[in-house]
Amino acid sequence: MAEVKLYGWWSSPFTHRIEVALKLKGVEYEFISEDVRNKSPSLLKYNPVLKKIPVLVHNGKPICESLVILEYIDETWEVGPSLLPKDPYERAMVRFWAKLLDEKCFPAMRNAFLSIGEEQEKAKEESTELLKFLEGTLSGNKFFGGDTIGMVDIVANFISYWFIIVQELAGLQVLTKEKFPKLCEWMDEYLNSDIIRENLPHKDKLTAIYQARFLDAAAANAAVAGGGGSPK
Amino acid sequence: MEEVRLHGFWPSPYVYRVIWALKLKGVQYEYIEEDLSNKSQALLQYNPAHKKVPVLVHGGKPVAESLIILEYIEETWSQNPLLPADPHERAMARFWIDFGQQKCRTFFSFYLATEEDKEKETKEVLEILKIIQDQALGDKKFFGGNKIGLLDLSFGWLAHWFECTQEVVGIQILEHSILPRLYEWTVNFKEEPVIKENLPDSSKLLTHFRWLKEKFSSPNPK
Question: Which domain holds residue A44?
Fold first, then answer.
C-alpha cells in the first residue's frame, strides 16, 4: 500500500491545491500540519533547499513545489480525472497559464492587497491586465479545464477564494462581476463543486489572518512613509 | 510533417535551450531572428501575454516560455528522451528546473552589481551555485545522469553566458578551485556535439553583455 503524506498548512492556497488534487484522484493521505514559523525537522529533511510547504511524501520520497507536485500526482495516479490533458499542445497551454498564475498573478494580487500609493496602483493595474487574459481563456467553458476541473482551475484557486477575501478587507474593486463576468461565473462553479466546497478553509478564520496581515502591512507602510502615507 | 518555426534572438540563452532540444531530437525547424527593439507582428500575435522570445510555432500553433517549450518538445517528439521515465525522478528534474528559474533574479542582480554591492551579490550567487553543485548535480557527470537532459539544457546558460557575466562584473566564481564539480560539468556540457556546434560567439556576446549592463544601469533605463 502506498504511503502518502502531505506536509502543509490549513490556510495556504498552495497546500489546498494538493489536497484538492489528491481528493479528486481518490488518494488516501495523511495530512501533517506544519507551522512555517516553527518548521519541523521532517520538513527541513524533506525540503532542505526551499524549506517550504507543501511537500508531498510518497513512499518516503519527497516532492516539493505545488506545480511539480500536481504533475507528479497526475502521472502517478492514473485513476480518477486527469489534471492535465493528453495532447502535448494543450498540456503546454495548461503549463503556460499555471506559470502565469503563479509567477505574475499571485505576486501582483498580493501587492495589490499589501502595498499602498503608487506601488498599489501599479499592482492593481497589473492584476487587472492579467485577469483580462484569464477571462479571455474561459470563453464558453465552465472551467479552465473544460467541462471538468483541471490543473489551471486548481492553480487559480487563490483568485477564487483567497483574493476575494483580501480584496474585501483592503476595499479593492479589482475583481468584480461587471469587469469579469466569466471569471466570476467560474468562481461560483469552482467553489460549489463537490470536492472544493467540502475542503475550503474556514472563511472567518482566513479573514482573521489576512486582517492581521493587512493591518501589519498598513503599519509598516505608514512607518516607511513617516506616518504620512495614505492607503489607496 | 508539420512546420516548426522558432522565433528567437541570438544572445538569448532561453532561445538556445530550445535550439539544443530541437537538435537533440533531430527536429527540422526554421529560425526567425527577432529584433527585440522592433518586434514583429508575428511575435506579438504569438505571445501577446509576454511579447518575448523564444516562441516555438508548430503547425501554426504557438508555444511560449522556454521551459514550457522544452516540455512540449519532449512530449511531441519521443526519440532521445530528455526527462527520466520514473515519475519521482521527473519531479526532481522539474523541481531543479524551477529552482534555477526562481533564482534568475539573484544572477541578474549580480550582473548589474555596483562596486558597493559586488561582495554581497557574489556571496548570494556562490551560495546558489553550491546548492546546484552539491544537491542537483551531486556526483553525476550531467544533471540528467550519463547523458544530458532538460535540466542540463535549463542550466546551459551557466556553461557559456555566465562566463560573460563574470567578465563584465570582474569577479570569477564558477571556476575549478571554487566549484570543481560544477566547473567540470560546464566543460563536459560544452563538449557535447549539439551544444558545441550551437553556441553564440563569445566575443559578440561579451560586447552585448557590456552594452546591456550600461543600458540597465543608466539613469533612465527605458
Answer: 4-76
